[in-house]
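Sequence in, structure out.
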Amino acid sequence: MALELVPLSYRLGAQVLGVDLTQPLPDETIAGIRRAFLERDGLLLFRGQQISRAQHIAFSRRFGELDTHDVVPKDRHPEHHELLIVANKPVVDGQENDQAIGVTWHSDLVSSLRPALGSLLRAVQMPPAGGDTMFANMHAAYDALSPAMRDMIGGLHCIYRRERKGGSAEWQATHRQLNPPVAQPVVRVHPETGRRALYIGQTALCFEGMTIAESRPLMDYLVRHATQPQFVYRHRWQTHDLLMWDNRCTMHLALGDYDRSKLRHLERTTVMGTPSGHVSTLPAELVDSAVPATM
């Protein structure tokens, strides 16, 4: 039986109707979801799915090996390590203890040598209004570049480094040793479709072999280009939404457009992708600097 799909936007995404994730799905349904995932440029919405954590994990596992989030143990569920908790800490009595997560344009696990294939994010509790997430179609953004620009960026790599705040100097040193800087290609070929996509975000530090000053104008341009309205979908969350996206050809941004005294709680599984990039060396100006964390 063919899946019933309703487009979420012109450029990317579809809502999948008639699928109940509380029930085991036959292989042919999973195959249909995979096809839709690729055809709709890597963004699928399953609405009204009142599933358990175990069911969330089981469904996600149908698409590949799941990350257990060992590099961010404080952020994962204590019993279900496949689940990353994406939640703010509500501001109480004006105290700024909010934890902002994912507030820059990025792709998940971009600072890893095995970045994420897919992410499946489930809305557990949402504020009365706001807390939206933006998605950019990086296939469409690449296709819209001029041939000369595509040629210029074709061999470039961006350097990323995973950082976590807090901890002793010894802990920070160990963390950096376990998470060396990684250089990822700026243009990435999708391993399943063969299509090219921009693979860059605001967490990029610089181009490999260049200084920050040399890199920043072009990196900023590419992010601005990719996040123009014609390439972007804005998702307005409802409780029990499950949103599935392809990190190989989209990037996303969590908006802080909600009352920070209210809880915004989501939980994410991460499907591991194929190896990409290589360990790199930071330029001298970045060796001792801190950069935003990416999840």
